[in-house]
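Item description
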Amino acid sequence: FTLSRIIPTSPIMVIAGEFSTPAQIKALEKRYGFDQPLYIQFFNYLKKIYRGDLGVSLRSNRPVINELKRRLPPTFELVITATAIAALLGIPLGIIAALKRNSWIDHFLRGFTVAGVAVASFWLGIMLQLVFSLYLQAFPLGDQMTGAVPPHVTGFMVIDSILAFDGALLLDAIHHLVLPAVTLCMPGLASFARFTRSGFLGVLQSDYIVYNQSMGIPKRKIICKYAFKNAIVATVSQVGLIFGLLLANTVIVEYIYFWPGLGTYMVDVMLFFDYEGILGSTLFIGLVFLIINIIVDVVQAYLDPRIVEKL
């Protein structure tokens, strides 16, 4: 709240325009409550939050909560897809790196994970657009759909296309989703691979794995039946953090690909200095991040009952 207010500009100046008079500016400040002391503005905002009111966007003059509800499905579709890709590729890569420890495969995958974490999402997105959209023309530059959209049910274009039994719309939705999801998933993929490798190495060096090996149990059975389940618990604990990382990265990725989600909305309200939009979207994303971490904790406790016993 304080950071949004100390920005050396005001949304009132944007709304009023360049040729507004001091009287018009004062009238707008009074209308939106900006003429009151900062602490009063803060307490008034807390009262609105208590009532479930995130205010009215200065940019669109619509309730912020309605704007967020409209933007949430595209962002969730993108983040869930990116997280799924990151997990499905990152976990096997981490297992391979652990089983091939100190080999050239391990060194290559470790270098790949470092690059995946370090690469800037905006640079990767622009490069993918340049190669696959402009040069090869294999994927569209951005947006969710080319033209027609399926009937609104969930807001997820892929799911709505399936529910509409429309194969053409489904292919179009997937076609538009590929590049943004690949761009967004890279830091998550690298993180999954690193955490899985670390967890697997710890499990493979544990006493019960060494004992099973000494008993002559096949290596494949040891890995699949004993090592995988125990190693994956440590990786599951990081899903919430990785999901939050990808959710934060949507601000950049969505803007690059013209994706109509929360990330694009946050950029728009920040450029407009829309206090209500900035605060509302920040609180909303924080709430989503909290819920995801609670779900991850429940799943982790289910996979490893010892966690509950320690509490």
